[in-house]
Each structure stands twice: as structure tokens, then as C-alpha cells.
Amino acid sequence: MALEHAILVSLLEQPGSGYELARRFERSIGYFWTASHQQIYRVLARMEADGRLLVREVEQQGRPDKKEYSVAGPGRAALAEWLHKPIEPESLRHDLAVKIRGAAFDDPAALVREVERHRQAHHERLAHYLAGEARDFTGPEAPAPLDPGQELQHVVLRGGIAYERMTIAWLDDVLDTLHRLAGPRPGPAA
Amino acid sequence: MALEHAILVSLLEQPGSGYELARRFERSIGYFWTASHQQIYRVLARMEADGRLLVREVEQQGRPDKKEYSVAGPGRAALAEWLHKPIEPESLRHDLAVKIRGAAFDDPAALVREVERHRQAHHERLAHYLAGEARDFTGPEAPAPLDPGQELQHVVLRGGIAYERMTIAWLDDVLDTLHRLAGPRPGPAA
DNA sequence: CAGGCCATGTAACTGGTTACATGATTAG
DNA sequence: CTAATCATGTAACCAGTTACATGGCCTG
User: Fold this and answer.
1) Pairing with A6, which of A103, A184, B44, B185 sits 20 to 30 Å away (CA)?
2) Quick one: pLDDT at residue B102?
3) Where is the signal peptide, in residue numbers (chains A, B) (predicted)?
4) Average pLDDT, chain A
5) Ramachandran sector of residue B85 (left: φ over 0; alpha: ψ -120 to 50; beta: rest)
6) B66 beta carbon < 7 A from strand C?
7) Tell me: the pLDDT tens digits for A94-121?
8) Which residues pair with B66 in a beta bridge?
9) For the segment B96-153, what is each residue's pLDDT rounded down to a tens digit?
10) What domain range is A161 assigned to?
């Protein structure tokens, strides 16, 4: 149930509406957790009903009104409790790896394009993360001595960067392997 | 719905019972997908009802009878269709990263033990993967020229190894960061 | 005789995805 | 006029987790 906790962390960093949270989940929080707006609204409603969040209706001009959520005492307590409770190290879940193994029962060469597409997507994510890192942490615009919250955000982002780099390198390995299997094909003209 | 496809791949590699599949999901397939026996039995029943799998009751001596599943024509067709259809590159979901960012609102030092525990778990997984690699692919017992299926299994395993190594390095980075934040603590005796 | 492995399942619940639904404002 | 952005939600479905349930065989 980490979505609740991710929301608590995000709202502690900065109160905001469901819509704003959904956008954050596409950016910074999305480095390590994703959620759709539908899911977010549902969970926000439940958390407010449970007394973990406070809502404030904010009128805006030129835009729809919004509900600004912030963390209530019990919410903060729930987060603290979770932080002190050990969690299971999680395992990978990678559809593409299923496909790669499945290629043995199909044409391996047919997978090249798909793998290249994924490589491209990870490359774009990496560029996006690096831009964010320069903007918020290492660039000339960034605050010189980072506060603890920023240091922690930075180390999480470094994890995202390391993940994308590793994945790109692995997909190159996969492409090499697929080419090797397709190149010297066992045909009659071998 | 990649569990169905993972099951199809595994049964194409080798027919087997639900119990055997559950064990494979703890080993080789578990490099990139996990599933509990409950889930597997449920999905197997559905796939058989849909005509994607065949069952054969196998009597055994000294053990309970088992149902051996194998892939039927429509199952193979369903796999082929999925293999040719693009899928979305997936994003990370990492609870521990939520905790790390949450530590800004708690005591960062209190997280050290938890991170060390995770580091340890990933270290063990890495050792397990490396042992499997030596046994099946690179060691003296391994078949000299690997067939395409084995090449593909190997490249997926290399992905798991790269992931574990990357994660361990990142967790070291996280530990450094936590120590830096806790070390020069902003107390009255600073 | 206790514990672990082999083997199969049901039931209830929780979390996540997809599809549907509405409606105002602003920029091109 | 059209598309994008802001803003909030409901409903149905699918996937995954947790708890419960059974029972024989083998090893120590």
C-alpha cells in the first residue's frame, strides 16, 4: 500500500490537489512510483475520510476550483509507523524479459524493433532525469548547500539515472544477442 | 496480463504441473516475474478452460498425482500474437525509494538498518544468479555451443545480474548519503 | 511424532487499469 | 472552432496478495 505513503511524502513536501499530485507522479515521484489520476482521487477521498488528510477548497480565477490536500497529524503518524516497519525487498517484473525468452519459440529477429523502441524510451527518460538533476541539484541555478530533503531527493533521482543507464546497456546486450542469433542463420546456404 | 504469457513460455520450455511452475517462478522465471501458487492454479484453470493448455493426469508413486500441463495450438498462437504486439516500457515501482524520500520527515539515521537489510538481500540474489549462470551457461558443466533458447535465457539472466549489481551500488550511495546527513548533525555541540 | 516437501485448491480482499463522464478557460 | 490544460470524479473489471484448507509421504 505504498501509494498512500507516496502521497503522504509528496503532500508533506508540498500540499496540493489531486490534479497536481497526478502531475507530480508523472515527474519527480514518477522516478520510483506511478499512479493514474483516477487512483489518486480514490485514495485521497479514502485518506481524508480516515482523517489522515485535511482538505481546503481553494477558489481560483480563470480555472476550476480545486481541493488542496495537506497531511493531518494521524497521516504523519501513519507515515512514521510505516517508515519504522521493515518491508520486503521487491523483485523485478519485466514484461519485455518474458518476450525475450518467448522469442525462442518465434522469430528472434522480429523482436529487434520492439527492443529498439524500449531502448529509445529509456534513453528519453534518462535525458529527462539528467535535465532534472542539472536543474534542481547540480546546475548553477541549484541551491548551493542542499538541505536534507533535497539530498534525499537527489539520491533517489541518482537511483533512477543508474537504473536507466543499466537498462540501456542491457538492451544493447539483448540487441547484440538477437543479431547474433539472426545473423548466421541455419539455412540451407549455411 | 503477462503472467499468462510467462506460463506459456515456461510450459513451452518444459511441460509441468502447477506446483512445478510455482517452483520455477522462484528460480529462473523469477529473474523477471514472480507469482504465487494460488495465482498460478487459478490462471492454469482458466487457460485450460479457454483451450490454450492441455492437461494430463499423471500418476506418481510415493507422491500425490499431478496434472501435467502443456501448451495447445491456440496457446501458442496467443503467445505469438502477443510477441508481435508492442508493449509499454514499464516504469519502476520501488517502495524503498518512497521510504528514502520520506526519511526527510523522520530520522534519516533510522533508515540505515533497513537499507542495509535490502542491500544484503540483493547481494544474496546476485550470488544466486551468478551461481546459476556458472551452472547453466559459463561453467565447465554447461553445453559448449548454446542453442538459441539458452542464449536468450542467458541474456535475460545477465539483465538480472546487471540489475542486482546496479541496485547494490545505488544502495551504497544511499547509505553514504544517510551517513553524511546523520554524521555532522545540527546539534547544539556543532 | 514433528517438520518439510509434494500437490491442489477456495475465498475474501486490496490495489491497479481502462473506460466513461463532465465542463470551464485559454491559446492558436 | 479546435485542441490543450485544469479539475474532478464513477463504474467495471482484472490482477495480485493473504488467509484458509486438505492430505499423503519421507526423513530425522
Assistant:
1) B185
2) 96
3) none
4) 92
5) beta
6) yes
7) 999 999 999 999 999 999 999 999 999 9
8) B58
9) 999 999 999 999 999 999 999 999 999 999 999 999 999 999 999 888 889 999 999 9
10) 95-182
> For residue B138, which amino acid is it?
T
Cα separation, B14 vs B176, in Å, equals 45
A98, B181: Cβ pair inside 8 Å? no
Domain identity same for B9 and B52: yes
Among B83, B110, B144, which residue terminates a domain? Answer: B83
Q: Are A58 and B122 in contact (CB under 8 A)?
A: no
- Close Cβ partners of A29 (under 8 Å, ≥ 6 residues apart): A6, A9, A10
Q: What's the pLDDT tens digit per position in B44-79? A: 999 999 999 999 999 888 888 999 999 999 999 999
Q: CB–CB of B90 and A86 under 8 A?
A: no
CB B54 within 8 A of CB B44: no
Given the C-alpha cell 508540498, which residue does it identify? A14
Q: DSSP label at B52?
A: S
**Strand D contact with B38 (CB < 7 A):** yes
- The stretch B5-23 carries a mean pLDDT of 96
Tell which A residues from 90 to 129 touch B, by Cβ distance under 8 Å.
90-106, 108, 110-111, 114, 117-118, 121-122
In this structure, the answer to whether residues A71 and A145 fall within a common structural domain is no
Can you tell me the distance from the alpha carbon of A150 to that of A163, in angstroms, rounded to the nearest whole number?
A: 20
Q: How many domains does chain B have?
A: 2
- Residue B69, phi-psi category: left (phi > 0), alpha (psi -120 to 50), beta (remainder): beta
